[in-house]
Design goal:
The complex is a heterodimer. Helix content of chain A is 37%, strand content 19%. Chain A is an alpha+beta fold. Chain A has a domain of 272 residues: Beta-lactamase (3-Layer(aba) Sandwich), CATH 3.40.710.10. In chain A, strands 4-3-5-14-15 form a five-stranded mixed sheet, covered by helices on one side. In chain A, strand 3 and strand 4 form a beta hairpin. Chain A is globular and about 85 Å long. Chain A starts with a helix and ends with a helix. The relative contact order of chain B is 0.13. By secondary structure, chain B is of the alpha+beta class. Chain B is globular, with a radius of gyration of 26 Å. In chain B, 57% of the residues lie in helices and 10% in strands. Classes of the chains: A alpha+beta, B alpha+beta.
Chain lengths: 458, 581
Amino acid sequence: MKSIAKRTWFALILACILLFGVLTFAIRYFLYADRWVSFTGSPHVYSHGRLDTGKITDRSGEVLYSADSKQLYSDSTKIRKATLHLLGDKAGNIPPRLLRTYASRLFGYDKLNGTAAMETGGGELKLTVSAQAQAVALQAMNGRKGVVGVYNYRTGEVLCALSCPTFDPLDPPNVEKENSDGRWDGVYVYRLFHTSYTPGSIFKLTTLAAALDKDPELANETFVCEGSRIVNGEKITCPKAHGEQSLQEALAHSCNCAFAEITLRTGKSALTAQTEAIRLAESIEIDGIKTVRGRFDLSDAEDNGLAWAGIGQYTVMVNPCQYMIWMGAIGGGGIAAEPYLVESARCGGKQTYAAEEKLTPRMVSRETAAELRDLMRYNVREMYGSVDIPGVEVCAKSGTAEVGTDANTATFAGFIDSEKYPLAFIVVVEEGGAGSSTCAPIARDVLQACINVLKGEG
Amino acid sequence: MEVFLDFFRGPEGVTLLSVYHAILRLSLPALALIIVIRSAKSLLGFRREPEVWAWLRLATGELLPVTHWENLLGRKKSADIVLDFATVSKNHAVLTKLDDGGWTVTDIGAKGRVEVNGNRVLSGRVNYGDTLSLGGLEMVLEPVSKEEAKLQADSRTKAGKGHSPGLTLVLLTLFQLLAVLELIFNRSEDRVTVMTAFGILIGVQWLMFIGQKLIKRSGFEVETIAFFLISIGMGICASANAGEMYKQLIAMGVGIAIFLVLGFCLRDLERAKKLRYLAAAAGILLFLANLVLGRNINGSRNWIYLGGFSFQPSELVKICFILAGASTMERIVTRRNLWGFVVYTAFIGGCLVILNDFGAAAIFFVGFLAIALLRSSSYPSVVLILVGVGMLAVLVLAAILAIKHFPHVANRFAGYGHIWEDSFNKGYQQTRSLMCIAAGGLFGLGLGNGWMQYMAGAGASDTDLVFAYVSEEWGLLMAIMMIFALAMLGLFVVRSAKVARSSFYTIGASAAMSILMVQAILNVFGTVDFLPLTGVTFPFVSNGGSSMMSCWGLLAFLKACDTRQNASFAVKLSSKGGDRK
């Protein structure tokens, strides 16, 4: 009997599995219950198919969305269009991501009482974006597809996060029927976070960061460009022969021949390490929005592939938001603040959420960041006078990414070097032609708008 | 601090009504906690005092107590009666008490002989006063005198001492009344049904309690736990579909009848052993009937309709299965009748695969493991474990085949682990469950106030997802408490095994509890997406008649292993002495 009694451990194990499982679940409850309670369609927090939450305002307090009003969205068509991807549309094709992330804070949900004492309709979600800046960006994009992102790399506040094409949520297009010319392609996608692009020459900044880290003497060297260069049997070309040039001139000319040479000298592993430092192939989460991963994979690349990758071609893909953070890191001396879109959440007069400032890991050394800053500043002074804003120093680099069709993707990325207006930015225009001529004016308008907003706040 | 103030807040702020509900919301889990703790103290805190059935007097004059109905005699330390003499084998003989009061001794393949009064026996009777010789070591079997028996019964701690089961039942009744108070408010249209149904429930539980008092039995913790779980189940039933409360009550009545009859049968081992063959045959018949008459509900063919009633034969087969699998030690050590049980299990497993009921197949498999483990001694254990693993492989293979060929199984498994990605289709049930668990908080939204009620019936919120239903309306604390209650019964079986009378009872109780606990595991873990949803009921709580009946049946095995003094109606008193004050 004794040995049989001992073997009842089997029942003991089952009891332990049961208890352990319940304990695990209890822990998960305290970690995730607020997400569970407000997921799409939850009858506890939705009424008539939409979140019954109260309102969403921009950084100045301008109401962008109000569950109490009949039409829900802003009175201004322009602002409705400019903030569509932040708020979501009525049909749910563009989900209300921010609202969903913070829904439980807007109701005053708590894990002790559940939804029993919840208040609906009294919530207020304050975003960091400026409706004004969004509207300026929308106008500057002038109907083209692409993204405009601006954020404060010292605090992390995102001031502008525009994705085009966009539409008026009160007058949604019939996307399937009206898309013969492709104008609504990817309209439901929040491009700033959920698309990755071939970066083109703005990627030369990443290459340069790796190269300067490896060999600081590079800054004093000269490079000779004869208009083309053969790497591993493949011809890499420049629009013209740039002749003998310093490093800052090579960057200003965006000289492919010079950067092919720099890339080959830097090597696969250093370049890959730099892309890892800027988290290019990682996904980060911004207020519940997960960015799409970029791509940097040289595992099958020969020297020619490596050279093209260093110029921002080959199979390289970057997410615009990620690249904007990297620009912020250069401006911030190697480290930037992590961006965020939601300033605070309130429920019935009580603050239930307040954004906290967080820093990115170090992306580049302080010295290299300073060197890059000077090179980018030279670039703007010499090449893109049109973007220069009086009173502040804009540092930037343009790109014209070849994407296999005639139409190139125009890219433009950089930052303002200023204690008062520390703004990093990225502009991408699909089928936009040359980066500097297309994107620089957009960047100037939006940055000016953002500076005005910050000035207005004192 | 404000969170605590919120506790008393209703939709219109803090009002008299909201305070009333808040007090109810707090009282229910508090009472439940006390009920569970009192039962746990009583079930898990008792002193395990052995019962002495006879004495073995060695030539040296030393008296060895015989403390079970089945005793392994041998040299090894884990023997029940350790005879540390060189001529005695490690496992030498089994001494078994018969229902008529006599004893038999069985040679279990020892090197030395087994003799009774000088005659070699392989298996034979031993009378009091006879000299038993194991490998030359002689001892005399001596009876326990009536006075000794009475003294023993008086000195053993009575069941429930220090934790009066009557008081626990009073608390449970209070718990039920509070639930009714809340239900008649939130479900005013059904208040007559609710009050009648709970009235009957309370009546039945007190009738049982008084009945057991009359036959001088005082252990009522196991039944209390069952009634506690049933009360929660009835609350769910009232919220989901009050009309079904009567159906549940009828099933409970039938279940209690099975519980009492089976418990009574288990008192006598010879009677119980005879029942095995009947049970085995009944199990086969039930499944054959199912194969012939089964109707397809939700993709599984495991239902039978008879005269307006529907039931799941596999639920009742659980009881038959345990009866067929339980075995006395004499049988176990002589390794007889093992393959019969393996074939029997394979038959049941086969039927369930044909019927496409994988939840039940998993339950029987665990039941088989529990029984196989207890029945195995060293050599056969290897075989049994091999068989067990083989069956697992067959089950997995069958599952893979089923996923390919039966869309409803495939759907259930496809959503597993990815419920949020397909929350309107494959993950529908689990995402709604988690949402409602979160909505309920720790104390619940109140009985009848939840959203899970709209998913009752076809959406299975009152059966497969009942953990979420309870969490939403009664609160997560209550849902956790019902799991504690069940796990506690499991621990009780493990604790009781040491002082069990026969391995038949240990095997029965251990298998029954394993089945109940694995049901809870599949039910709860399926609901919260730790495991694929298999459509298994939570014992006593889920709405379902067959399940209710089988749970009571399984509970009878628990009662049969409760050897605390004067505890269980399913256990004969060793002496009338214990009856007197």
